[in-house]
Amino acid sequence: ILFDEASRFHPEYVGFPDAQSKEDVVKQADVTMMKHPLGYEYPEGDDVLKNDLFHYEDMYDENGPAMTDFIHTIGWCSLGETERCRSAFDRGQRNQQPQFGIWTETVDPLYHPNDMGCYNFLTGAGGALQGIIHGYFGLTVKDDCLEGRVAWDSDLFVDRLELRGLSWRGVKLDILADGGNTNIVVTKGCCKVEGAKLCKGESWVGDVDSSFRIEEAL
Description:
It is a single chain. The chain is of the alpha+beta class. 25% of the residues lie in helices and 24% in strands. It has five helices and eleven strands, in the order ααααββαβββββββββ. A hairpin with a 4-residue loop joins strand 1 and strand 2 (102-103). It is globular, with a radius of gyration of 19 Å. The relative contact order is 0.10.
């Protein structure tokens, strides 16, 4: 993975940007997808993830796909930067068109005069869901567990976040969060949450900003 030690960010390619780039415009998230879904741990430090997000945010094509903003939602939420997280999430929703909330490939649904672009753009809809699941709930899929941490934002104008029916290795969970607590409720099967075995109907409660780890109950 390329790394610019002097500027402490990850360039797209050697010599980035070069004279062949279109006014230094990047079409969509690529480098910033290292955090999610690639799962890159950023051993260089959180400051490098922040630099990557800052560096590319100003370079994206305004008519790029919505998933770019939701990738940034996930990145900023993981850093606890809730204001930037909310801003990225709001930007992504510009691709959701009234009156029925249909997702389009570009912010302007008429940007593609010949083919109208891609309507019912599932990449955008899926990006929005991932912005909530992996951004605001902070869920990360590991080889042997799920890890998470809610990025609670009191300025979201909601009093509760709910992720219901989460299925993982035969277990079903509800994850509920408000301004005070994160509550994980097992609705099917058994698992371990922070080392404690829980079965159907049982729950784990932690502070809203507490990290949590969900493992199989062997």
